[in-house]
Amino acid sequence: MPPVGVAVSLVAAMRKFPTSETVTPTPGQKPRMTPDSAQVPAASATWTNAEPNTLMERVLAPANLRCAYQRVVSNKGAPGADGMTVSELAGYVNQCWPILKARLLAGEYHPQAVRAVEIPKPQGGTRQLGIPSVVDRLIQQALQQQLTPIFDPLFSDYSYGFRPGRSTHQAIEMARAHVAAGHRWCVELDLEKFFDRVNHDILMACVEQHVEDKSVLRLIRRYLEAGIMSGGVVSPRQEGTPQGGPLSPLLSNILLDELDRELERRGHRFVRYADDANIYVRSPRAGERVLASVGRFLSQRLKLTVNRKKSQVARAWKCNYLGYGMSWHQQPRLRVSAMSLGRLRDRLAELLSSARGHKMANTIERINPVLRGWAGYFKLSQSKRPLEELDGWLRHKLRCAIWRQWKQPSARARNLMRLGLSEERACKSAYNGRGPWWNSGASHMNQALPKKLWDRLGLVSILDTINRLSRVT
Q1: What are the CA-CA distances from residue 347 to residues 163, 374, 395 (Å)?
Q2: Which one, out of 30, 287, 360, 391, has a CA that is 20 to 30 A from the CA of 130?
Q3: End-to-end alpha carbon distance in the chain
Q4: Cα angle 469-472-473, degrees, rounded to a multiple of 5
Q5: Do 254 and 302 contact (CB within 8 A), yes or no?
């Protein structure tokens, strides 16, 4: 039987989705779509606005589903195992709501297998994601919106990942506050393949402490146990919660809240963002003791394993957290980690690899969103020199691309004169026989293409952007 979806009611001002041209799909067949299939689904004749009594009824309430639908569509995302795209969701669910509602309320709905996708990890290797179908993403989002108000108030104040009103920047500031308070040794915890090793029974026991609706509990377990499709073959899953669905971050926080409460009970200073957890102590001996005892707790209580090769006890300024590092000062100064700087250089080098065959305005337009996003994330950095060097390196790369575009020495001399160099210096520079990288870093190219010219061309300066953001905050 094909996957079925959810129809979301419209407010009066919304454009209604036409249903007269749709036909009921047969098994294995997608519905015939209309040109407006990306619009919000129209109200169904079977849709009711009765006051919800159970948690599942609140999940399926019109307002909750409308919000979930808009979130799924705005997030876009790739199709799941069935190949249905986000733009096809509205037309499909417009037909199938009565069937799905009955199956969900009766506890008879079974999610599809997730589509396996592997992405590279920053430290090397790959991470497997599980992409649910768009219909299952809609249901998971509706579940998440109703479960979050139940669980989020119970979570630790030291937990920051995937929580409303909390951010990575707050987690980083908390880490710095711990070090400034004198806890200058860091226990870096690395949970080995956390999302692949989540024990379903332990997780469901944590959920059942605060959720009584059997149909909701049954549906969550079925999402945990949904198979993984890779190469057209579906493999069953006995443990783990695949990254890629709206429900996974909340479930991971529910499970790891057990760790948070244990650390709080012991009086530790710590900060956790999803499965990235750092504990701050006053001495290396205390750090080794904490690492060993927390490892035992995770193994015995949550059936999770600490990767001892990647976990360590070290000075706080020798550890990175969420892309940031910090200085050794009594009041630590935040900085961008060397790994984050290297990853940005690699990304920019990849974008600039084809710059030679394009107009410089197009190249700048392509890299500016990356620079703005990166500067926005690292706006807390107080170490300016690496950012200044990064800006200089980027301009060097762009000047190198321009030098290559000029090709012939005569063209180089002509363009250098056009940019303000004397004829003698332009000709000497153009015919010096040196390579593109040397010339693009030499004084004649720096004089011809100074920073103020790149500013006029609209190139984002990371240092200037972070300085401006720092003044605003």
Answers
A1: 29, 11, 15
A2: 30
A3: 53
A4: 90
A5: no
Cα–Cα distance, 11 to 36 (Å, whole number): 17
Pull the structure tokens for residue 168. 């990575």
Q: Are 378 and 466 in contact (CB under 8 A)?
A: yes
109 closest CA partner among 263, 221, 236, 267:
221
CA distance 56 to 214: 9
Q: pLDDT of 384-433, one tens digit each?
A: 999 999 999 999 999 999 999 999 999 999 999 999 999 999 999 999 99
Alpha-carbon distances, residue 234 vs 186, 211, 307, 325 (angstroms): 42, 30, 29, 42
Q: What is the pLDDT of residues 57-87, one digit of tens each?
A: 999 998 999 999 999 999 888 888 888 888 8
Residues 14 and 40: beta-carbon distance below 8 Å: yes
Helix (H, G, I), strand (E, B) or coil at 360: helix
Interval 90-108 mean pLDDT: 85
Q: Strands of 276-281's sheet, edge to edge? A: 269-273, 276-281, 185-190, 312-315
Average of per-residue pLDDT values in the chain: 85
pTM of the predicted structure, to 2 decimals: 0.82
Q: Which of 207, 208, 297 is nearest to 259 (CA)?
A: 297
| Helix 214-225 and helix 134-151, axial crossing angle in degrees, nearest 10 | 130
b/e 399-412 (16+ beta carbons within 10 angstroms → b): bbbbbebbeeeeeb
- State how far the Cα of 466 lies from the Cα of 344, in Å rounded to an integer: 15
> Which tens digits make up the pLDDT trace of 178-194?
999 999 999 999 998 88
